[in-house]
Structure prediction request, 55 residues.
Amino acid sequence: YNFHDEDNEHLALINVHAGDDAAKAFWQDLDSQLRLFASHADFVKRVTLLHKAHW
Prediction:
């Protein structure tokens, strides 16, 4: 699932927190240098291309 919030109107209201399997959770800017687990980089790249966003 992908949700694009151009002006951060909605995502700013969400308080992210880690679940049982995560050390911590946070919002982060992404680029192609970020090391992601398994095929997550492929998924994120597809979403950035969809939105013509920085990658």
Notes: The chain has a mean pLDDT of 83. Residues 11-50 form one domain. Helices lie at 40-50. The chain is about 20% helix and 0% strand.
